[in-house]
């Protein structure tokens, strides 16, 4: 099954961030995916493979 996500979507990752939340917003997509923690604003860049391995579920699609 292919995971469908896009720029601006809010996703839940398997492990929570040290600030206590596991909700992240996708802010850049390409070969790497950059996500921003919605709790503290910390930004992390992951390879697409690592992102898909750590992805848990889609929380909110980008508002059009």
UniProtKB/TrEMBL annotation:
UniProt-listed InterPro entries: DUF951
Protein name, UniProt field: DUF951 domain-containing protein
Organism of provenance: Paucilactobacillus oligofermentans DSM 15707 = LMG 22743
């Amino acid at each position: 099954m292919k995971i469908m996500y896009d720029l601006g979507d809010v996703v839940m990752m398997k492990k929570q961030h040290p600030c206590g939340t596991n909700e992240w917003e996708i802010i850049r997509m390409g070969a790497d995916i950059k996500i921003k923690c919605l709790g503290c604003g910390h930004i992390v860049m992951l390879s697409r493979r690592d992102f898909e391995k750590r992805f848990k579920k889609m929380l909110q699609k980008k508002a059009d």
